[in-house]
Design a protein that fits this description.
Chains A, B: It comes from Pedobacter caeni. The structure is a homodimer. By secondary structure, chain A is an alpha/beta fold. Chain A has nine helices and seven strands, in the order E-H-E-E-H-E-H-E-H-E-H-E-H-H-H-H.
Chain lengths: 279, 279
Amino acid sequence: MVGQSNMAGRGYLNDVQQIYDEKIKVLVNGRWQTMTEPINFDRPTSGIGLAASFAGAWRLKNDQEEIGLIPCADGGTSLDDWAVGGALFESAVLQAKLALKISKLSGILWHQGENDSFGGLSALYHDKLSIIVDAFRSQLDAPDIPFIAGGLGDFLSGGRYGKYFTEYNEVNYALQKFAETKPNCYFVTANGLTANGDGLHFDAVSQRRFGIRYFESLLEKKNILAPLAGEDELIEIIQNRPLTKKEQGTLLEIDFARGKISLGDLEKKLNLLNDQSSN
Amino acid sequence: MVGQSNMAGRGYLNDVQQIYDEKIKVLVNGRWQTMTEPINFDRPTSGIGLAASFAGAWRLKNDQEEIGLIPCADGGTSLDDWAVGGALFESAVLQAKLALKISKLSGILWHQGENDSFGGLSALYHDKLSIIVDAFRSQLDAPDIPFIAGGLGDFLSGGRYGKYFTEYNEVNYALQKFAETKPNCYFVTANGLTANGDGLHFDAVSQRRFGIRYFESLLEKKNILAPLAGEDELIEIIQNRPLTKKEQGTLLEIDFARGKISLGDLEKKLNLLNDQSSN
């Protein structure tokens, strides 16, 4: 997970049902932990991103396997901030290398461009991104690794910062062109996706849809140029996956550890859960 | 910030007033961002830790300077999990090295030991910790860097997992012994500190007090073997530091980005803030 705020995720947590699945992991301090949302806690405003439904869709096709997410996105960052050798690039490579010690790298998810949508920067987008992607692939020894880049939202020009984003169409064009010319790189449209009140960040439901598209792109190794049929049905299936007893128990423990339920309530509920398992 | 859950922080966020100060930073993706709580987001249960009031106390003595925190603590981890060359150790060293590119390293804050308080592990605590501290100092090229280790809570034996923590007194003794024998290592007592309902994690108020003690230990380069006079008064001062207009504006932007206030309300409040500044 690399890019800026819309890869980190700013959808409101309360707007969608959380995705929780013991086989969806996130890298924390070099080790895999079960994913909870928000995944990519780069700022206090971090919320729902596209990676959770992406992973959920992957799980529907890989029933017995685990998937791990490596959160490296950072809000408000430009391509120059992501330049090879800079802190963000170095940090992401280090994280990926820690993961590589225990896992296999399967893809790079990218969403970035709002901060290169003005002042003539869009004209440089394709070439700057190309250098970064080449360096990621080279430093991770993964020359063919799929690179999936999502488009910028059509709402940008009308939002709170709309006057700044004069070149977001050009960035979208550069991303699409990049995917057409660079091997194993794919473009995923943001068509039809909507924003929070800021007109800048994809809302939670849109992030869920975006994740489905990212997964379809990775699965089919192709660009996704229009919304997919059945996105919302798939999201429902992912969000409503029946939890195992162990997962239900863990979620109760989390509620307790957050002070949301008392120790007495926790024990009562855990007992209830155990009683069910003996039936 | 290294150790297990009580260094990461599990105090309930709503139990204390948040500490927000543009001059207190946290390392995110290799770059400094303004700290917000929770600082060390290792688990969904992450909350108030000791580092915020530690940094706040530091700021009272360093009015014009910035302090940065590097969150590397990881819940439920034992000394063996922290062994040199393991994922946690490697990850912490990499984070510190990213920070060293732009900053100076001033101290290592350690809290760990609950997971070495049984099965005879306490007898190995001193020597295992010594190897880890030597390796941190060597790999970070900081042979004299202060290492501050806090004690385990007296509540452990009475809590939900009390029967497991049969050797927490021995771990406390090992930590104190370690501080007495190892150069520039200091011990900070947890005397008088209290826990969440789990009898395992320091509550938010206790974490605030603990942070004050950690800072006093660093400042005076000495062990803190009893609660300090005026801890709560100092916490009040830190938590009630008057916010600058810029900080107030940023907090409003965060509320808006989280969906807590509308765009209209945000703009109204920002205008009000700006009007104040012209008076």
